[in-house]
Amino acid sequence: MLRTLSLQLHSAVTGSYVSGTYSVVFVNCPNEQIAREIARAILDKKLAASVNILPKASSLYFWNGEIEEATEILLLIKTKTSKVHVLSGYIRLVHPFEIPEVFSLPVDQGDVRYFKWLEEGMEED
Length: 125
Known about the structure:
The protein has 125 residues and is of the alpha+beta class. It is 38% helix and 34% strand. The chain contains 4 helices and 4 strands. Strands 2-3-1-4 form a 4-stranded antiparallel sheet. The longest helix is centred in the N-terminal third of the chain and has 13 residues, at 2-14. The protein is elongated and about 50 Å long.
C-alpha cells in the first residue's frame, strides 16, 4: 500500500512512469461469450481500463494427472498493480473454471500518455 502511494506520488510529481505501477493480467476463458461477459464486468467495476480478447488459444495442461487440450479465449487485462488482488478475487468469483488461470506481470516501460489514459479509465465516477 505504501509502495503504491509513493509510486503514484512520484509519477504525479515528475510526470514520468515508475516501473510496476501498472500490470497486465492474463485470464483464459472457455469461450468468447464468457470472455466478453467477464471483460465487460471488469470494466464496469473500474477494475481495469482495457481488456483485449484474443481468440482461439490452444492450451495444453495437466488436470487430474492427465494431459488435457483445449481451445480457450485469452483475456489481456490492463490495470493498476494496486488493483490486481481485488481483480483476481472478482475473477475467481465469476469464472466458471474450478481453478481459473489468473496471473499478472508488472509493466516495466511504456508510453506515459497511454498510462495516463489507463489511469483515467479506472477513475471512479
